[in-house]
Every structure is written in structure tokens, then in C-alpha cells.
């Protein structure tokens, strides 16, 4: 087929070629964006926003919020739009995670999904379900040696990977691996601070632990924080003291720049 096209079009200009080109002759996959909205609650637990599907397929199942990309928007624009529809937020941390393209990942048709990570401080997150969702809820995410669980006291339910719609269990596993790796070499944890102009080391350590899925030594974390932020003048100590996490007041810090 390709050889025939080359013989018949090789002497055409590009304008002539485009006039006779018929894209409807070829099957096309649809493209969606799925948005993993992570936050850390007051108990310093990692949470993920899920929506309960209000339509087939997977009617009633919990899923990552997302939707189809419009023909006139980029992937990033589609992700930002979906995030706005689900949370009302703009201008927050949004990072492309991975593309999921298994042939039968969607029972309706061939659908390729591009997943995005969004990190939102809990005090900024206002949840609202989109048009095709029956409900929306933050689920506490517990990482285990094999997989993860998602739990909600509000909904009185615990979910495993197999309980989710589509291949969203795989998408969440991929996101957790990205977060666990990235928190070790980047400043991604700062995006979850409630206030970058007044925070405690304890609060920041708990965010690191939530993303990494493991406990960290407090003394080592303080030394690392001092070397990375104080010595480089990326943060300063404030006069105001914090008593929210222990009986002994500790210092507040402010990020600079």
C-alpha cells in the first residue's frame, strides 16, 4: 500500500498531496488524559483523588479522573482542563507520567491514555466530580510490599488494584514508583507544603515519608535539610516557633525564591 502511494504522489507538491489525502481511510485510536491528583492530609498520609464512574463502562467503579483530549487542544491543555474540572485548580504542579497503550485496555475501542501527576496541598484542594462521575473522594493510599490499598472512612470502603476501573491499578503503581524515585533527588515534596512561607521540618519530613512510603531518620533529615536549603540560602529560619507537632516548640522556615 505504501509503495503505491509513493508512486502516485511523488511528483505532487505538498499542497496537492494534502488536497487528495483521505485520513478517514485509516483507523484511529482515541486519546485520553488521566490525572493522578495526590495530596497529603493532616495526618501526613498520602491521598489520591478518585471518581466513581456514573456511566458505562465500569459503572459504579472507582477510577482516576480524566477524559478524552479534544481535537484542538494539546495533551497539556487537556490535562489542565480535566484538572480544573475536577478540582477547580490552575497553576499547580503537573507532570506527564507515562503513556498507557495496551490494545484492550478500554472495552469500548482502542484508547491510548497519557497519565499526569498533579501535586496539590491539602488546604487548596476542593473536590468536585465531573459530568461522567457519580461521586468523587480522596482515598488514603497505603503502599505495601506487593501493590497498594486505597481506603476511605467517608465511603466505608477499601479498594485493591483489582477493584479499580480500566488499567488504573497499573497507572497508580507506575505513579508511586515515580514519586518514590523522584522524592530522593528532586524538590517535588515542596509542592505539597500547605505554606511555603511558613513550615516546619517535621511537616516537610512527613511529606517526604508519605511520598517515599517509608520512615526517615529525623536527625539525618535535619542535617540534609540544613545542607540543601539553609547552607545554600534557599530557606531561612523564622522567629516564630511551631508547637503543632510536639510539646517542645520547633522552628518555622520560609523558602526563598
Please outline what is shown here.
The protein is of the alpha+beta class.
Strand count, sense and barrel status of the largest sheet are: 9 strands, mixed
What class, by secondary structure content? alpha+beta
Topology pattern, helix = H, strand = E: HHEEEEHEEEEEHEHHEE
Euclidean distance between termini CA atoms = 57 Å
Shape: globular
Query: What's the total helix number?
Result: 6
CATH superfamily of the largest domain: Nucleoside Triphosphate Pyrophosphohydrolase
Radius of gyration: 23 Å
**How much strand?**
25-35%
CATH class (first level) name of the largest domain: Alpha Beta
Kindly state the number of beta strands. 12
The helicity comes to 25-40%
Mind explaining what this structure looks like?
The protein has helices spanning 2-9, 14-20, 75-87, 168-185, 201-212, 218-230; strands spanning 30-40, 46-53, 62-63, 66-68, 93-100, 111-119, 133-143, 148-152, 157-160, 199-200, 235-242, 250-255. The mean pLDDT is 91. Strands 1, 2, 3, 4, 5, 6, 7, 8 and 9 form a 9-stranded mixed β-sheet that branches. Strand 11 and strand 12 form a beta hairpin. It is globular and about 80 Å long. 25% of the residues are buried. The protein folds into 2 domains: 30-185, Nucleoside Triphosphate Pyrophosphohydrolase; 188-255, Winged helix-like DNA-binding domain superfamily/Winged helix DNA-binding domain (Arc Repressor Mutant, subunit A, Orthogonal Bundle), CATH 1.10.10.10. The chain is α+β, with helices and mostly antiparallel strands.
Amino acid at each position: 500500500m505504501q509503495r503505491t502511494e509513493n508512486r502516485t504522489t511523488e511528483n505532487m507538491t505538498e499542497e496537492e498531496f494534502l488536497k487528495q489525502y483521505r485520513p478517514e481511510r485509516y483507523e484511529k485510536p482515541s486519546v485520553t488524559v488521566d490525572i493522578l491528583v495526590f495530596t497529603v492530609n493532616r495526618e501526613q498520609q498520602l491521598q489520591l483523588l478518585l471518581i466513581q464512574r456514573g456511566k458505562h463502562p465500569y459503572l459504579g467503579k472507582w477510577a482516576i479522573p480524566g477524559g478524552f483530549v479534544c481535537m484542538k487542544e494539546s495533551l497539556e491543555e487537556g490535562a489542565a482542563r480535566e484538572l480544573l474540572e475536577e478540582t477547580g485548580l490552575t497553576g499547580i504542579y503537573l507532570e506527564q507520567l507515562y503513556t498507557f497503550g495496551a490494545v484492550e485496555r478500554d472495552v469500548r475501542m482502542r484508547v491510548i491514555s497519557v497519565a499526569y501527576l498533579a501535586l496539590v496541598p491539602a488546604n487548596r484542594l476542593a473536590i468536585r466530580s465531573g459530568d461522567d462521575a457519580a461521586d468523587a473522594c480522596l482515598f488514603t493510599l497505603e503502599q505495601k510490599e506487593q501493590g497498594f490499598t486505597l481506603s476511605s472512612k467517608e465511603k466505608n470502603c477499601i479498594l485493591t488494584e483489582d477493584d479499580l476501573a480500566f488499567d488504573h491499578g497499573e497507572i497508580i503503581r507506575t505513579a508511586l514508583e515515580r514519586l518514590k524515585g523522584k522524592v530522593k533527588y528532586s524538590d517535588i515534596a515542596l509542592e505539597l507544603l500547605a505554606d511555603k512561607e511558613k513550615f516546619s521540618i517535621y511537616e516537610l519530613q512527613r511529606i517526604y515519608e508519605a511520598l517515599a512510603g517509608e520512615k526517615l531518620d529525623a536527625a539525618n533529615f535535619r542535617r540534609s535539610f540544613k545542607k540543601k536549603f539553609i547552607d545554600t540560602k534557599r530557606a531561612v529560619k523564622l522567629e516564630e516557633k511551631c508547637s503543632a507537632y510536639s510539646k517542645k516548640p520547633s522552628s518555622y522556615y520560609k523558602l526563598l525564591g
